[in-house]
């Protein structure tokens, strides 16, 4: 659990650092944009003052030409409007632009004109330059690029980590199956030797029978591990019957105060499954329930179906899972117990989703009231 808490904290710290860097960049860019916008307004204001000074005694067309040239030198789209709004002069707009429409757009956008003293330039409406417009959009473009970079990096990291985890899973499983093979073979040989040594000893034969059952179980476990990493063979089987088998095995090993409530086998539900691996998942879930119930309670199973899936709900009346841990229950290393590697649920998820093309998730969990896991399989 501690490793996931540390990992979550590091993710949070990195996210906060990234957001702070992005905010600083956006604030600085906005500051520059606001300064540039004020400078443009100051330039237009200076122009209005200059043209008023130059044209106090305007009386011919040459003066008008000079005024327009002054406007062009500041490179800002400007519309000069007389007090009666009958005389309109513009500069720095694209050739063929409809000035009346441009003027109306500026008014509708809430742009405050610079007000002169009098004359044909009573009101000076101006449009911000293309550079300023790009600068205002830049923080949002920057934010989108930042999010895209983070998303691509996260996907790449997650894919690489998942591939590495898969290799670890496969290697560990194959090695476990290999290591189990040697002692199992030796135990089988010793059992055969005991049969030969004391064939008429009933007590010895009874012990041999129980040991053979345990060896058979070990062989099943080794077979399960050997299937990890390879494509298992799926069979069309009755899921309810498989649940009954798991119940029969686990109920004998459960405390007497634990009750099992499993579905009736009269209504079959068929799906393509691999019995050893599927039963492994069910047994893992039941074992976790037993650990969470502290020796007493109820484990129940319910099977339902929709148009294309079979839904298996496994519930217990145990201690439940805290809400802040629900997202990490299927991560390798997650466990609420003092002992254990925390690989059971992670392995269950891999078996259901990778080998059976299904889904497994926590449907409901309440502290001290229990947990319900749901397995979703394609029905046949």
List the helices and strands and how they pair.
Elements: H1 2-54, H2 61-73, E1 78-81, E2 88-91, H3 99-108, E3 114-115, E4 123-126, H4 130-197, H5 202-227, E5 235-238, H6 239-251, E6 258-261, E7 270-273, H7 275-293, E8 297-305, E9 309-316, H8 344-355, E10 359-366, E11 370-378
Parallel strand pairs: 6-8
Antiparallel strand pairs: 1-2, 1-4, 3-4, 5-7, 8-9, 9-11, 10-11
Helix pairs in contact: 1-2, 1-4, 4-5, 6-7, 7-8
Please tell me about this protein's structure.
The protein has 380 residues and is α+β, with helices and mostly antiparallel strands. The chain has 3 domains: 2-128, no CATH class; 159-227; 235-378, Histidine kinase-like ATPase, C-terminal domain (Heat Shock Protein 90), CATH 3.30.565.10. The protein is 56% helix and 16% strand. It has 8 helices and 11 strands. It has helices at residues 2-54, 61-73, 99-108, 130-197, 202-227, 239-251, 275-293, 344-355, and strands at residues 78-81, 88-91, 114-115, 123-126, 235-238, 258-261, 270-273, 297-305, 309-316, 359-366, 370-378. The strands form 3 sheets. Strands 6-8-9-11-10 form a 5-stranded mixed beta sheet. It has a 4-stranded antiparallel beta sheet with strand order 2-1-4-3, with helices on both faces. A two-stranded antiparallel sheet has the order 5-7. Strand 3 and strand 4 form a beta hairpin. Helix 1 (2-54) runs antiparallel to helix 2 (61-73), helix 4 packs antiparallel against helix 5 and helix 7 runs antiparallel to helix 8 (344-355). The radius of gyration is 39 Å and the shape is rod-shaped. The two termini are 39 Å apart. The model has no long low-confidence stretch (mean pLDDT 80).
